[in-house]
## 1
Amino acid sequence: MKKLLLSILGAALFVSGSSFAQETNSAPEKTDYKWQMRLRGVGVVPHNRADIGIIGGQIDVSNNFIPELDFTYFFTENLAAELILGTTRHTVGTLGSDLSAIGGPSSANVDLGSVYLLPPTLMFQYHHKFGEVFKPYVGLGVNYTIFYNEKSGVAQDIKYDNKFGWGYQFGFDIDLTEKFFINVDFKKLFLKTDVTVDATNLLPAGTPAGTTLPIPAKVKLDPMLIGFGVGMRF
């Protein structure tokens, strides 16, 4: 009986040792990365329009090219959330404004200086995989646009109201290795703000003291963001 028990124990140890060696020598599985980070170069192209009080005309906001950083967290293989960070500077002016009320021409372009925009955006995404390296995605999300470092141009002062907005995106990643990849991304953001221009300094000579000239405007920026960059999973 003792010999039988020793034989069974020896066989069990042999099987366990063989299984351990097989697991040790097998190829490791791919790491299940939950996070990824991208650095992109992004072209920012506003599709702007505005309702400008008193002087009328249309708004003119410049294009720009900026660096952009984003972080993505994967809840599942397909569902993720991406936080997008970037800031951009734009020059601002009006086209075809009527300045006759303050002694100017009836159609003029007005320099309104420049402003920086910081629109942190949170996108909720669906990712898919075609083959081993091509991974397209779509996203829908919200942003809060902060306007700062305003320069007023020819006016005395200018103020932009911070606002919530929304946007959508689509793009794709192409794997270079398990950890590193390249990225192409398109986003459309719907941004708007209320602007107040203080043009009191442009009033003609002889205007009664204490008279002010606030010019309100409702501005839609709605920029397209076209980006290309590299990314890393971790």
Note: Residues 37-233 form a domain with the Porin fold (CATH 2.40.160.20).
## 2
Amino acid sequence: MKHFSPSQLGKRLAQLVLSLFILLAVTFVIGRVLPTDPVGSIVGELADPAAYAAMRERLGLNLPVYEQFFVYLWNLLHGDLGMAALTGNPVSSDLAQAFPATMELATLAIFISAFVGVPLGLAAALFRDTWIDQTARVVSLVGHSIPVFWLGIIGLLIFYAGLGWVGGPGRLDVYYEGLVPSVTGMLLVDSLLAGEKEIFFNALSHIALPAFMLAYSAMAYITRMTRSFTLEQLGQDYVIAARAKGVSPRRTLFRHILPNIAVQLVTVLAISYGALLEGAVVTEIVFSWPGIGQYMTSALLIGDVNAVTATTIVIGIVFMLLNFLSDIAYAVLDPRTREATS
């Protein structure tokens, strides 16, 4: 953290706290104005009026909205996100189980998309208007155009039902479930920590297809943006001067172009990672992946306001943290950012 003064870090933290407060306020108000009945989803539509009123008072819904909000903030500070009508468990407990599954899926997807998308975008820019560039454009266009759920269904039909190359829906085969102690909640990591190689490869076979399908749309975006950033740098005077001096294209790429587009790539990767965490909903439904997206969808279908609100807040916090980390990365990678904000 030597690149930051205390005032800079304090300013960024203050912005983060303010953004979090606004997110909580907006999400809470939206949750309260939705045409749903959280009391009815708990006690049932045919419940006794006295039981209905008692549950409404227990949930604090008899209070004015502003009082409900401050009570919600107080409970939130103590880790209480309310009870989920969907499962009957504390929402915090449900999210602690569901979020690692989504994080594992999105993290593998962002590694795949970055590993393929960045080199493909660089190659497309360096070999502009060649077959490499045309291929990259087609790949990006298809990735932006085809719905993820359709790709998922076709992928299951071909690679699981047809060829048998990957595992089916879910995170594990049934006979492996519960055999690995949950340490991080991410099966690939937990199975390695437990020394269960067989379970690791079974989990890998199940996550491979949804991760690739989820990564494809992000890869298309990363490829397109990397190509655009690189083309912009190729037209700069320093690149033209380096070529005139006889500097090899490889040296020009790794010593000059990549450092200059690093900050922009950090932004693209952070946005893509956040979008993968948020956009895993459809993928999780298609592949029966027990993550935060499937949890939120199930909660929406029954009008579980506590679960929906908490899930929205978690996703929003993830986006804000990614932006905060991006700001830190900017200052590390580009000294001009530190000078501009000092």
Note: The chain has 15 helices and no strands.
## 3
Amino acid sequence: MLNIAVLVSGGGSNFQAIIDKINDGKLPCKIDCVIADRKCYGLERGSSNGIKTYLLDRKELKKNLSKEIDTILEGKVDLIVLAGFLSILDSEFTKKWSKKIINIHPSLLPKFGGPGMYGIKIHQAVIAAGEKESGCTVHYVDAGVDTGEIIYQEKVSVLENDTPETLQKKVLEIEHRLLPQAIMDIAEGN
């Protein structure tokens, strides 16, 4: 069984999607812990599901954040899942955990990725650019920001009457399905 750690910075709805799939017996893995880089609802989701939680304040730890995460996870997990984690992991960490860290990003990378592209900002940029489609990407994490090898992408149409909020909702529905699917495939060795 695959042991995973989930890293969050916000509400943790993708984290909840993983928990639900595990509880339904549809995802053969165990969540060892959830780590947040700021106080957030994702930690409450972990606690209420009996999962170990860690708060590593990014403002206090600064450049030592990745080192602290590594200390917690060393020898305990097979895969690190970034589910709305906003801090950038350092290159030493991403090299050590190469092909063992995945991220979900709410755009069709390489479009609308990189520093500063997160949350509603992405959907605002997609609409401002006049894109006809958007979606989400599950990718391996490397030393760049949103530059790792793509595992999965799924598209949604951007309609004329879409707002950043309606587009975000459509993309999030796909994220909740695609991230657990990527974890399942990795657990099965695919």
Note: The mean pLDDT is 97.
